[in-house]
Every structure is written in structure tokens, then in C-alpha cells.
Amino acid sequence: MKVGTDGVLLGAWARVEHLGHCHRILDIGTGTGLVALMAAQRSKAHIVGIDLDEEAVAQATENAARSPWSKRILMVKADAKRWSDEQSARYDAIVCNPPFFENSLKCPDAQRTMARHTDTLSFDELARSAARLLSAEGELSVVIPYDRATDMTVSAACHGLFATRQTIVCPYEGAKPKRILMAFTRQGAAHTPEVLCIQDAQRCHTPEYRKLVEAFYLKM
Q1: pLDDT tier at 21 (50, 70, 90 boundaries)?
Q2: For residues 5 and 143, is the Cβ–Cβ distance under 8 A?
Q3: How far apart are CA 204 and CA 201, in angstroms?
Q4: Reduced 3-state DSSP string for 134-195
């Protein structure tokens, strides 16, 4: 899987350095390890990335090994649904760029289908796994299509997780929202969703987007 804007947004937005108690982070569906690496750059936590695809885990392991944070990152081939039953330790933050296509045409590439479609991890299964794996004050952060926000909110609530922060993402100023970044905790919190535009009307990156992600690019 290539590096995409969704992963960059999530890796930059998820609260990992602001949580004083954030010692352990789980990246579900790690892919190339992008979000896990960004979490390592932003924190001092120990990070586990899990993925169902063996080749993805091999790539993520190589990427982590070549990073300055290799001693704090572990990549594992595992299913989040079973991982919650196998591991007793809890995580202070869970990040996930989940598959979100339902009942749509499958890609001929099996790896891309696994990464993009909910066959392998539905929102309900993600919420259930997160509820089992999060510490008492832990936070689940996801990036999903804007029109699936209600689905994710309902799934999370069914497992005792409630929205505490949201950022609506528009590709450019004046465009309809395409993505939403959402964070959930057991306690939840009253909040007003923020809006982030990636580009302005001239298709240049907005100052807000630059501020969020510029630490992760060599050049913007």
C-alpha cells in the first residue's frame, strides 16, 4: 500500500503526545507502518502495529527497522479480533485507518481488497476490539469517509466508546467533506467538530493543513 493522505492525516492528528499516560500504542491495519512510525516520531511510547497481510507486515517491519525509533516499534501479523483475546496488556491509544468500502466492486488485487473493504474488519468489529484493548482512559482514533461518521459513532457507542473529538476534512475550500477524523473514549466529551481544508481555492495547501503535517514531510 502506498502512503496516502488519510494515513498522514490520522498519524498527525491522533492524540499521542498530548496524553501524558500514553505509554503503549496499537496501530490496527498498519499497512506500510506509516501511522505507527508517525506515532513513534511524536511520542516516547512503545508501539505495536498489526496487519492481516504477511507482505505488509514484512514491509512495515523493514520500514520500522530503518527508522530512528526501531527499538520502540514491533510489527506483527495478527487479526485485531483475535488479538484482543490473546493479549492481556491494554493500550493507551489505538489508531486505525480502517477499511470502509461495503458491497462495492472488489479490486483484482487481493491485498488492496483486504485493505479497502470491510470484509476483514467492520466498524462494529473495530469498536469491539478497541473496547477490549483500550486502557481505562485510552483513546481510539480513526479516519473514515464523512458519510460513514454515524455508522462509526453508533458502532462505538454499542461498545461503550463515545466521541470526544472530531475534525471534518474537505479536499479544498468550498468542497463537500470527504473524510472525518474521530476520537473515542469511554468517557466521551462535549465538543464541536472542527473543519480542516487541505487546499485553498487556488489548490495550494492551507496554513492549517501545513501546520498539522509539515513535521512529517521533507518538503511541502
Answers
A1: confident
A2: no
A3: 7
A4: EEEEEEEEEEEEHHHHHHHHHHHHHCCCEEEEEEEEEEECCCCCCEEEEEEECCCCCCCCEE
Fold of 5-216: Rossmann fold (3.40.50)
How many Å apart are CA 93 and CA 75, to the nearest integer? 16
Q: How far is CA 97 from the centre of its chain?
A: 4
pTM as predicted: 0.88
Q: Residue 3: which pLDDT band, with cuts at 50, 70 and 90?
A: confident
Report the alpha-carbon distance of residue 176 to residue 170 in Å, rounded.
6
Instruction: Residue 161: name the closest of 126, 192, 122 by CA.
Output: 126
Proportion of the chain in helix, strand, coil states, percent, rounded to 5: 35, 30, 35
pLDDT tens for each residue of 142-158: 999 999 999 999 999 99
Q: Where are the alpha helices (DSSP H) in the chain?
A: 5-13, 34-42, 54-65, 80-86, 110-116, 123-133, 149-158, 207-213
Separation of alpha carbons 132 and 85, rounded Å: 8
